Amino acid sequence: MSTRISSHATHVGQFGSLINAYLVEEDDGLTLIDALQGDQSKKILEAAAKLGQPVKRILLTHAHPDHVGAVDALVAQLGESVELIVGSREARAMNEGIKLEAGEPTNGNLGKQRADSIRAAKPTRLIEDGARIGSLKAVWSPGHSLGHLAYLDERDGTLYCGDVYSTIGGVATTAGPFWRFPLPGAVTWHRPTVLNSARTLAALSPKRLCPGHGKTVEDPTNAMRAAIARRSEVDRAA
């Protein structure tokens, strides 16, 4: 299933909008943000073909299995014509294993982290906070994973938030399980860190929120702030 969500982007969904990827149009072709779960390369390439443009870049928010499933197959099929772009912190977790670095909190849930689902493809470009990838700006947003990045399309304010928020059953942070859709919060590495990342993203006042799980939400800022407030209240009561 693919659905137009803005003048620049198309949603590619797995099981409806349970797991999401996005094709973002640039002057030279398409940037794929995340890659679903399992080998969904056929679905992704069919959506790209409908847009009449090649996939030029695969851009990851993070390397959990439900975001990278088609990466190996896409890189194998597209060869040197496609870039694989990953945040440098997330790439170190992929290459060196899940382990803490200096300054990272030690009371997180490392046991729920995985970054082993890309077995063959190697990143061709590593990026940091503030990097520009075409029209997209990388926004450092760790906590759900060690090196999570979100991406803001500066043309129209669309925010690809990965798993900092989910929208199944309503906008929620992943700083703890949300009763309507608990999975993303259940596998978060460090809840206080992702809650701070949720605040960072809300402060951007995006025009459109595109999560890893759930439907796209228009004018989401108030809902994002409400989700932060709810989670903060739960944490205070704990």
Instruction: Give a count of the beta strands, DSSP E runs of length 2 or more.
Output: 15
Largest sheet descriptor: 7 strands, mixed
Quick one: overall form? globular
Chain-averaged pLDDT:
96
Rg over alpha carbons: 16 Å
Q: Specify the CATH class.
A: Alpha Beta
Architecture (CATH level 2) name: 4-Layer Sandwich
Q: Can you identify the CATH superfamily?
A: Ribonuclease Z/Hydroxyacylglutathione hydrolase-like
Low-confidence stretches: none
The number of helical elements comes to 7
Structural category is alpha/beta
* Series of H and E elements: EEEEHEHHEHEEEEEEEHHEEH
Beta-strand content: 25-35%
Q: Whole-Å distance between the termini?
A: 40 Å
Topology:
Elements: E1 2-4, E2 9-14, E3 19-26, E4 29-33, H1 41-51, E5 55-59, H2 65-68, H3 71-78, E6 83-87, H4 88-96, E7 125-127, E8 132-133, E9 136-140, E10 149-153, E11 158-162, E12 165-166, E13 172-173, H5 183-186, H6 191-202, E14 208-211, E15 217-218, H7 221-237
Q: Describe it for me?
A:
The protein is globular. Strands 1-2-3-4-5-6-7 form a seven-stranded mixed beta sheet. Strands 8-9-10-11-14-15 form a six-stranded mixed beta sheet, with no helix packed on it. With 238 residues, the chain is of the alpha/beta class. The chain contains seven helices and 15 strands. It has a single domain, classed as Metallo-beta-lactamase, Chain A (4-Layer Sandwich). The longest helix is centred in the last third of the chain and has 17 residues, at 221-237. The chain starts with a strand and ends with a helix. The mean pLDDT is 96. α6 runs antiparallel to α7.
